[in-house]
Design brief:
This is CPBP family intramembrane metalloprotease. With 37 residues, this protein is mainly alpha-helical. Helix content is 86%, strand content 0%. The radius of gyration is 12 Å and the shape is elongated.
């Protein structure tokens, strides 16, 4: 997964894009934990 974030950074040359991807991933995992409980 870190490779995907690194590629996002390399393509956009902006760390905020990688941070946004990481936040979206964490949000998705959190929502799935709640919904599949």
């Amino acid at each position: 997964m870190g490779v995907i974030f690194a590629l996002g950074y390399l393509c956009r040359k902006d760390i905020r894009y990688a941070i946004a991807l990481h936040m979206a991933n964490n949000l998705l995992a959190f929502l799935l934990l709640i919904l599949l409980r």
